[in-house]
Amino acid sequence: MFQALPRIGRRLALSGSAAVLAVVGLLLWWLLPLGGESPSGTITFSTGTPTGVYQMYGKLLQGAIAKDMPDLNVELQDSDGSQQNISRVATGEADFTIAAADAVETYVLQDKPGAKRLRGCSRLYDDYVHLVVLRSSPVQSVKNLKGMRVAVGPGGSGVRLIANHVLEAAGLDPGKDIEPLAVGIADMPELLEHHKIDAFFWSGGLPTKAVQDLSRNDAIRLVPIGSDLVENLHQQGGASRYYRSAVMPADAYPEAQRGSAVQTLAVANFLVTREDADADLTEELTRTVIASRDRIGSVVHAAQLVDLRTAIYTDPLPLHEGARRYYRSIKP
């Protein structure tokens, strides 16, 4: 027969058991995953044209999401660009997208379907406006495009929006003073190469592969877009307030620029979703966007400019609650 433990001994034994349980609990807290399950299911992501930065960024982000959220399937959709991207997300055809600030503002100002449901997740990188001509072209400024054949992008693209604003700022009517061609970056270089157009507008991250390839194969140059045009753009009001003066670095397209930087304008891109997107999913997706910046940036150089300090600034869109949660979680 075992003798009963003295009262003090029982207290010590109970205290020791509690301590062991506390240690075990602490170990489990460190070793086991916390929170809900990893996001699962399928989401659609509207990107851009096959040779543009949006699509390349989307493909690389898809790979990063597969590593961080293996149970989540991401379907990519080609698109004409920002304007179509915004419409798809606002109306529920897509769940997430990338779009430029001027396209977002235009959609909101026109109060198009679902505009009030749009939410921002992160400011990403800047698009730079390219005005590309053959090196032998007489065009030295936007004004010189009068009477010429100019590719301005498909109707649903962000480049069409910017091209029209820039032409108007230069005193040209986009529908009367030029011969506009509604083609995208996939076709623009070949048309210029074969003298079927005189110039093309493009708005994208640096460098854009289609322009980069063209600059290596043909004698082209980039026409400056001066600060005076930016002032005229700001006077237009509305979406044009998101354009700002910028300098295209000399090494963006070395063969075309021949060591010289080019004055132009830039506009910010956002990661966009809807108000009803799952908060946990949006939080994790925003986390992946920030965490994968360097990996994606090694291929898409523009992605290197994703900056945690400015990521929360998605005006004119309010932050999605899930994205807000992420930024709060990393706040020192």
Protein architecture, described:
This protein is of the alpha/beta class and 332 residues long. The protein contains 12 helices and 10 strands. The chain has helices spanning 7-31, 53-68, 82-90, 101-109, 158-169, 188-193, 209-217, 227-236, 254-257, 279-291, 293-297, 321-329; strands spanning 41-46, 72-77, 96-100, 118-134, 149-151, 179-181, 199-204, 220-222, 244-248, 262-274. Strands 1, 2, 3, 4, 5, 6, 7, 8, 9 and 10 form a 10-stranded mixed β-sheet that branches. α2 (53-68) links the parallel β1 (41-46) and β2 (72-77). α5 (158-169) packs across α8 (227-236). The N and C termini lie far apart (60 Å). The relative contact order is 0.17.
What order do the helices and strands come in, and which of them pair?
Elements: H1 7-31, E1 41-46, H2 53-68, E2 72-77, H3 82-90, E3 96-100, H4 101-109, E4 118-134, E5 149-151, H5 158-169, E6 179-181, H6 188-193, E7 199-204, H7 209-217, E8 220-222, H8 227-236, E9 244-248, H9 254-257, E10 262-274, H10 279-291, H11 293-297, H12 321-329
Parallel strand pairs: 1-2, 1-3, 5-6, 5-7
Antiparallel strand pairs: 3-10, 4-7, 4-8, 4-10, 9-10
Helix pairs in contact: 2-10, 5-8, 10-12
Keywords:
332 residues, alpha/beta, 10-stranded mixed beta sheet, globular, disordered N terminus
Summarize the structure.
The protein has 12 helices and 10 strands. The chain has 332 residues and is α/β, with parallel strands linked by helices.
